C-alpha cells in the first residue's frame, strides 16, 4: 500500500480544473490519512470553486487514481482555495454555510419510506420552530410535491428561484420543473448540474436544517450529494426485516466512503396495531432497526408503525401526518432527537 507521502506525490500531478495548475503547484492537498487495516485513504483537497460539475469530475479522477493505486475505499472532501489570486467566488451559496445542518435521508433499498420520512421529519422540525428546507433529490423518481400536496410552482425573483413553502417547509423538487409528469432523461453531468443549481440558484434564505430525500440505493446522485456536501449527516431508513443487516453493510460502506456521519436509524413499517384490539402485529418481521443501529453504532431514532395519515379534503397532502396523529407524534419525537444530536455536536465543535 502507498504511504501518505506517495499519495501526495501521486495527487500532486493532478490538474485543478479552474486554474489549470496542478494540485502540487497550488498547494491544494490539505490532508491525507490512511487507515491501513481498512485499506482506506481519505484526502482533503482545495479547489477554486466548490460544489461544481468540475469538482465532481476531479473527484472521479482522484478516486480512480487512488483505487488503481490499490486502495479499497476513498474518502474525499473539498474546500475552497484561499481567495487571493483566485477569481472571486460568486454569491455565497448554501453549500458553504456553517449555520445549516444538512441531513440526507438514505436507505439501502427502495420503497422503505425515505420520502415519507423526509417529508414528515421536515414538517416535524418546522413544527418545533426550526427553519427547514427540503430538497427532493430523487431527480428521476421525484415524489415530494405529490406527497405534500403541492400545486404551486416556484417563482423566480432577480434570477433566483424561490422555493415553495408548504407547512412551513421550503421545498424544491425536480417535479416543479417538468411538464405533465414527463420523465426526466438527463444523465450524468447534467444530473450533477441540476443538484448544484438546487443549492446555488435557489434562494433558501436562512435555514437551520436542509433535508435531502435521496433516491433509492447508493447510486450516482447519492455520491454527488455526498461530495458536494462533505459535512452532510445521514439518517438511514429501514424496514424491520432482519435482513436489514445487509442494508447496513451497504449503507455503512457508503458512509465510510463519503466520511459522512450517520445520525441514526429510523425503522419504518415497524408493526401494525389493530385499532380494535390494540394488538401489535409485526407484519414485516422484527428487530431489523435495532440490528442496523447496532451494526452502525448509532441510535435508533424511532419506530413508525403502518398507518395512513388522516386525509383532509381542504388541505390535501396525502403523505403528511397531522400533529396529533399517532405517527405525527412519533415524528415530533424523532425531530427532537435529531435537534438534540445536532446541537450536542455543534457544542463539541466549538
Ligand atoms: N408507516 C407507513 N404506513 C403506511 N404506509 C407507508 C408508511 N411509510 C411509507 N408508506 C407508504 O409506502 C410507500 C413507499 O414510501 P416512500 O415513497 O416514502 O418510500 P421511498 O423509500 O421514498 O421509495 P423510493 O425508493 O421509491 O423513493 C408509499 O406509498 C408510502 O405512502
Ligand atoms: Mg422516495
In summary, what is this structure?
With 350 residues, the protein is α/β, with parallel strands linked by helices. The chain has 10 helices and 15 strands. The protein has an 8-stranded mixed beta sheet with strand order 8-9-5-10-4-11-12-15, sandwiched between helices.
Distinctive features:
3-stranded mixed β-sheet, 350 residues, hydrolase, 2 domains, Rossmann fold, 34% helix, binds magnesium ion, 8-stranded mixed β-sheet, metal-binding, Mrp-like_CS, iron-sulfur, 10 helices, GMP Synthetase, Chain A, domain 3, binds adenosine-5'-triphosphate, nucleotide-binding, alpha/beta
Description:
- Binds and transfers iron-sulfur (Fe-S) clusters to target apoproteins. Can hydrolyze ATP.
- It comes from Priestia filamentosa.
- Belongs to the Mrp/NBP35 ATP-binding proteins family.
- The chain is of the alpha/beta class and 350 residues long.
- The chain contains ten helices and 15 strands.
- The strands form four sheets. It has an eight-stranded mixed beta sheet, sandwiched between helices. Strands 1-2-3 form a three-stranded mixed beta sheet. A two-stranded antiparallel sheet has the order 6-7.
- A hairpin with a 2-residue loop joins β6 and β7.
- α8 runs parallel beside α9.
- The chain is globular and about 70 Å long.
